[in-house]
Write a structure and sequence with these properties.
Layout (H helix, E strand, L loop, with lengths): L7 H17 L3 E3 L2 H11 L5 E3 L17 E5 L8 H13 L5 E5 L6 H10 L6 E5 L6 H6 L3 E4 L8 H8 L4 E4 L5 H7 L2 E4 L3 H12 L2 H19 L1 H11 L1 E2 L10 E2 L2
Parallel strand pairs: 1-2, 3-4, 3-6, 4-5, 6-7, 7-8
Antiparallel strand pairs: 9-10
Length: 257
């Protein structure tokens, strides 16, 4: 979480100490491309920068159910934009899309607006708010859905997206999400702008073509296996961390980043 400071003393400290520490490190880890850019702005480009992703457990992918269920899973906060999810649902229902739309998560201020919108749009039979669920229940709830939609703005690293991919569900996220490059690289969903039109078009494209939906879910699962699963993250650590042979006295010495 090293980023350029706007304060004079902060910039001075970075110039005298932070930059020196970064350059002297055997490796400097970053989570997202934005974090990498911040590190380079503080420490320059001659560091040994290494990506280190978060990991999720996974087993076999779950089949996508026949009944189409579009899921929003997250805190009901304005930055997550659950209201835009309801507006998207209204547009797609009016266009004749055969799907239900589910909202799951604790309220952080947006629930009254969501309930009001559902009532105003007469979506009571197509959009439902299920409340909050325990963290250990999220995997099962995602598996009951067809795809995950998270229209958040500037979402750094939403674990719900990785959890969805881990059970073989495609995702729709915005271009300011930290996982957007990975979703685009593996083709396991859609990365959209922050407007209602692009969000609605992306979701409609997936739910109207089951073959593409299933294929995107397969690619999402492969992405987790190759890059975001616990084994992949562990292998990445092993490639970066140098472990020396134990010395004669049997005390193991390791050199880490």
């Amino acid at each position: 979480m090293v980023d350029p400071s706007k304060k004079f003393m902060g910039r001075a400290l970075d110039g005298l100490l932070t930059r020196r520490v970064l350059k002297a490190a055997d490796a400097v880890f970053y989570l997202t491309l934005d974090e990498r850019e911040d590190l380079e702005r503080v420490g320059g480009r001659d560091m040994n920068l290494r990506e280190m992703t978060n990991g999720v457990p996974y087993a076999a992918p779950w089949p996508i159910p026949d009944a189409m269920d579009v899921l929003f899973l997250g805190r009901l906060h304005s930055r997550k934009r659950p209201l835009l999810f309801v507006q998207m649902a209204d547009r797609l229902v009016r266009k004749g899309c055969d799907a239900r739309f589910s909202i799951v998560g604790p309220d952080e201020g947006e629930l009254p607006r969501i309930r009001s919108a559902i009532r105003d749009y007469a979506l009571e039979h197509r959009v439902r708010y299920e409340g909050a669920i325990a963290p250990e229940s999220t995997r099962g709830r995602i598996a009951e859905s067809s795809l995950l939609v998270l229209p958040s703005v500037n979402e750094p690293y939403p674990m719900s997206v990785l959890e969805a991919a881990a059970v073989g569900r495609p995702v729709v996220i915005t271009e300011s999400c930290g996982l957007a490059p990975a979703i685009q690289q593996y083709g396991c969903g859609q990365v959209v702008g922050h407007d209602l039109d692009s969000l609605s078009d992306a979701v409609e494209g997936l739910i109207s073509n089951r073959n593409e939906l299933v294929e995107a879910g397969r690619r999402a699962y492969e992405m987790v296996k190759c890059r975001f699963g616990m084994e992949a993250v562990g292998d990445n650590w092993e490639r970066v961390v140098t472990v020396f042979r134990p010395p004669a006295d049997g005390v193991e010495v390791s050199k880490t980043a």
